[in-house]
Design a protein that fits this description.
This protein is mostly helical. It contains 2 helices and 2 strands, in the order ββαα. It has helices spanning about 15-60, 65-115; strands at about 10, 10-15. The chain has a two-stranded antiparallel sheet with strand order 1-2.
Length: about 120
């Protein structure tokens, strides 16, 4: 006998269980990405702060040529920080969506299972 993909297992079908496993794995990967982006965001913040401090130091010393160079570097650091921050926010939004999808499917399945014996 071959395996029945839509056969019942404890608490639901094999397909629902597989879908839950895939969703959970995807959510785990998103959490890993968010952790990496969080560390990157914190490091990018440090770089912006360091660039700002170097610029202030150059301006206090009256080193106009160095200040121009550092101003450009500070602007580049800010731009890159914004890119990392946007990516981090996108991942957080995706995590929230994925969690809501998992909860929605679980609630729907619970509702269907609850109604199946009522008739």
């Amino acid at each position: 006998m071959g395996s029945e993909l839509r056969g019942e297992v404890t608490g639901g079908s094999v397909v629902h269980t597989a879908e839950f496993i895939v969703s959970s794995a995807r959510l785990g990967e998103l959490y890993e990405c968010s952790a990496l982006l969080r560390r990157t965001r914190l490091r990018a913040e440090e770089i912006v702060d360091e660039a700002r401090a170097l610029l202030e130091e150059a301006e206090q010393r009256g080193d106009a040529a160095r200040a121009v160079e550092l101003r450009d570097q500070l602007e580049t650091a800010r731009t890159k920080y914004c890119q990392v921050l946007n990516a981090y926010m996108t991942i957080l939004r995706r995590i929230n969506e994925e969690r809501q999808d998992i909860l929605r499917v679980q609630m729907e399945r619970d509702r269907i299972e609850g109604l199946s014996g009522a008739a």
